[in-house]
Batch of 2 targets.
Target 1
Amino acid sequence: MQILTGESLDRATLLRLADAGEPVTLTQCRLDGVDLSDLDLTGWRFDRCSLQHAQFNAARLEDATLLNCRAAGASFLGASLLDAVIEGGDYSNASFLGATLTDARVSGCKMTGADLTDVQAIGLTLREVLLVMAILPRLSFRKAQLSGVDLSEADLRGCDFRDAVFEDCSLRDAHLPDCRFDGADLRGADLGGIRLTDARLFKGAVISKRQAGELLGQLGLRVL
């Protein structure tokens, strides 16, 4: 395995490394704005790298690890992140449009404004992820265990939250038309901004007395 530390890398260098067919570890390397589209980066490790506005479009990142990277504005259009680990770092306004995140693990990340439209995400694990104002239409969270996930003001239209469990999460002011919450446990979710007229979306879900009181408070009623 090759290990590079503290280097500024261009596409030609990365292509040569990828063509060698062995996983590479990049530590504190700078790849800002570099085009890594279509490269086979299976098993690569990016440790504290700067990936701002880098392009990973249609790249293969199966079993890759991205640890504490700065990747604001990066593009992962159509990339395969099967079994990948994204831990820590900043992916604000990054695009994962059409990417594969099946069985990927994402934790401790800032993904404010990220676009996850048309992502394939069966088995995706999210923990302590900031997805404020993110775009995640029709994503399936069925039976997911969501812990510390902030979806405030996110576009969640058509998402499937059936049988999901929320722990220390937020759906405050999220866009929720056509979502499904049958069997979901919402007691650990901030439902602030949800209007009583939207309560039908939560049919079949479990909420706390406090949450019910907040909803009914809009009618001037108190739950004791």
Target 2
Amino acid sequence: MRKYGVRIDFEPFVTLEGLTEKEYRKNRVYPNDFTAIVFTSRHAVDHFFRLCGEMRIKMSEDTKYFCATEAIANYLQKFIMFRKRKVFNGNKSILELKSYIIRNKDEKFFLPCNELGNPEITRFFAELKVSIQEAVMYRNVNNDLLHLKDVKFDIIAFFSANEIKSLFEQFPEFKQEDRRICVFGTAALKAVTERGMEVNIQAGTPEAPSIAVALENYLKVSNKV
């Protein structure tokens, strides 16, 4: 972003932490009881197979995998043999796999997720009248942001609702004032507006598929070169 005369600082608001085997076993929900796994991120893939390994669970070669993106589907190759499994993927979202899910509605679907769950996915499956089991396999832990207390940013970009939650847990009196807010996706948009803030820049749209593109589109207008 040098050509626009701006500096970007990357400050992760949250870190992902996997549940231990002992913590997970309290759920009494075992992955090998299911025949179709839904992955919305590479983190979900990592923690799913990590916990399976720690619990000495081996997934059937007939297991089907439904991935939000091609990148996630390709990442699966670290853990499974593609020729022996059936893998389906969308371009941006699981919601694009409607026809494949309906075609496989008799499978038992399993969704690895964080402690907040994934309401969008569970609502989608409910609308399709296909049952799905959420299972918390990892959680979000706040990174310490206190060193930013006196730093003033012109734009703050949020990749997820968890980051907004982290911000207000550490700075309860935070006010948007003249800052511009950039968000990725509908969950972050909802979290920001629920806090009474205004979204100025939105990513995760056809015009701006990423935060980088959304920021550049905004800066082309606001910081003309």
